[in-house]
Amino acid sequence: MNIPHAFRTPALALCALAGLAVAASGQARAEDIVVSNYGVSANGMPFAVAMEKGMFKAEGANVTGILSSPGGGTTLRNMLAGSAPFAEVNPNAVIAAVQQGANIKIVSDDVLTVAEFVWAVKPGSPIRTVADLKGRKIGYTQPRSTSQALSTLVLQSGGLKTEDATLVKTGGFGEGVAALDIDLVDTTPMPEPIWSKFHANYRAIAIAADILPPITNVVGVAAPDVSPAGREFVRAVIRARRKAVEYMKANPDESGDIIAKVYNIEPAVARSAVRNLLASRTNGVEYWGAGEMHMDGLRRAIELQKMVGAISGDVDADKLIDTSFLPDDLKAVR
Q1: What whole-number distance in Å separates Cα of residue 95 and Cα of residue 148?
Q2: Do residues 51 and 9 make contact, with C-beta atoms less than 8 angstroms apart?
Q3: Mean pLDDT over residues 95-113, rounded?
C-alpha cells in the first residue's frame, strides 16, 4: 500500500474540485469506479469477485470498469476529474482532499486492518524478533507512506524507537524484495499477495495481525451531494462489494482463481492470499469489512499518518463520515 501525499499543489486541488462539481451535478452518469492499487494490492480483491460474478448489475449498479491508480491522491483525482461516483482509497488521501476544500465523505469502511503486511528476512538472517532490528536497516516504499509509518509501530512493538534502526526507501514492495536479496536492507515489508508468492524464500519476523492494532486501511468515498441516481449507484456498489466479501468467505479457492486472472498472478498464490486474509483476525477484527464504520481504526489511521507528516492539523474523524449510503443494518458506528 504505497500512498503518495494527495493534492500537493493548489492547482491540483482546483482541478479536483472542478471535477467534483461535475460529479455532484448529476449531468454525467459515470459507470466506472476507481480503486486504489486495483490489480496489485489485496484491498481491491472483492471488487474483482463482484465484477466477475455479476454482483454489481444484480444490485443495480452498471459498473462497466474498475480503474486502478497507484496511490490515494491519484485515485481521488481520477474519481473527481472523471466524474466517477465512487472510489476506494486510503484515509489520508481523503483527509488531504478535504483539507483542500473537496466536498467528499467516507461512505464505507472497506479494509479494517493492515493484516496483509509481513516483515521478512532471509532464511539465514540472525534477526529472529523485532528486538533484533536494533542497528539494522528496514525497507519502506516511499516517504509518508503507510509502510514508513508502520515501520515505526513495528519497532515500538519490540521496545525500540524509530532512531534505533535505519529506514531505507526502496521505491516499492517488489523493489524492497530485491533490496533484501542484495543486502541493501535487513528486512522489508511483503504485503499480500507478494508474501504468498515469495514466502518459501524468506522468514517472517513480524506479522501485522499479531503485533499491531486494527487500523483502517482503505475506505469507500463519495460526494454527499451527488445526484439521486448517483446515490443509488454508490449504495449498490457498497451492497455488491459486501456480497463479494461474503462470497469469498464461502468460496475462497474459486475467489482466488477469479482474482488470479485480474491480478495476473498464479492461482495458488491468489488462493493463499485470500485464505490468509480471510483467516486473519486483528484483535478479533476481520481484514475485509462489510462497510460499517469502525471509528477507533479510523482514528488510529489518522494518528499513523500524522507520525510521518502525511496529515497535518486537527482532524475530526466524525465529520469525515456519512453513513447514509450504507444498508440499514450497517449504519451503526462501531
Answers
A1: 18
A2: no
A3: 93
**pLDDT exceeds 80 at position 238:** yes
Q: What are the cell numbers at 57?
A: 448489475
98-102 long-range contacts (CB < 8 A, ≥24 apart) are 98/320, 99/313, 100/7, 100/10, 100/13, 100/16, 100/17, 101/13, 101/17, 102/7, 102/13, 102/16, 102/17, 102/20, 102/76
Taking the alpha carbons of 264, 188, 272, 245 in that order, is the dihedral positive or negative?
negative
> What is the model's pTM?
0.87
Collapse the DSSP code of 321 into the 3-class scheme (helix H, G, I; strand E, B; otherwise coil) and give the result: strand
Task: List pLDDT tens digits, range 253-292.
Answer: 999 999 999 999 999 999 999 999 999 999 999 999 999 9
Q: Which of 63-72, 85-94, 97-106, 190-199 has the lowest mean pLDDT?
A: 63-72
The answer regarding whether domain 10-113+215-330 maps to CATH 3.40.190.10 reads: yes
Looking only at the bridges linking them, the beta strands covering 137-140 and 166-169 are: parallel
For residue 7, the one-letter residue type is F
Cα–chain-centroid distance for residue 319? 21
If you count them, how many residues does the chain have? 334
Instruction: Please identify, in words, the CATH class of the domain defined by 118-211.
Output: alpha beta
Residues of the chain with CATH 3.40.190.10: 10-113+215-330, 118-211
